[in-house]
Design a protein that fits this description.
Elements lengths: L5 H10 L5 E6 L2 E6 L2 E7 L2 E5 L5 H5 L19 E3 L2 H4 L2 H50 L1
Antiparallel strand pairs: 1-2, 2-3, 3-4, 4-5
């Protein structure tokens, strides 16, 4: 089902300078993607942008809530926080917040990739240690 949102169209228009931008349905709303990276979510005409330690204080200091895709789920949240109306209404500020949000999304992707690489290395080490231990056990017999 295609979700239409005037806010998503507005945000897409103002953040197009960030790169190849696209919209698609997500969580019953509209996901705003830059180069296939989720930047923002529009649900019920509210905008949520990606956050991390570099920009989270801007949201929390204004009392902006974290996006919960399924409100009844106890611990399911995302790294997106609601954007204050005064930021959305000011195209220049929206661009600044959009750029900072994209930087946060890129850093999160890098961290996730590094975590995956480290996990793969750990699993490879553990597998080798298990094989070496099995070889040692065979030689002792």
């Amino acid at each position: 089902m295609r979700v239409k949102s005037s806010l998503a169209s507005y945000v897409t228009e103002h953040l197009a300078f960030l790169g190849r931008i696209s919209n698609r349905a997500i969580f019953g709303g509209v996901g705003i993607f830059i180069e296939e990276r989720l930047l923002g979510i529009v649900i019920n005409e509210c905008l949520y942008l990606h956050t991390d330690k570099s920009n989270i204080d801007d949201y929390l200091s204004r009392g902006m809530e974290q996006f919960k895709p399924y409100p009844n789920a106890f611990d399911l949240t995302t790294d997106h926080h609601r954007v204050p109306a005064e930021i959305i209404e000011n195209p220049e500020e929206l661009r600044v917040w959009g750029q900072r949000s994209l930087n946060a999304a890129i850093e999160a992707a890098k961290a996730k990739q590094l975590a995956g690489i480290e996990r793969a290395r750990r699993e490879k080490r553990e597998k080798k240690q298990a094989q070496d231990g099995a070889s040692t056990q065979k030689r002792k017999r």
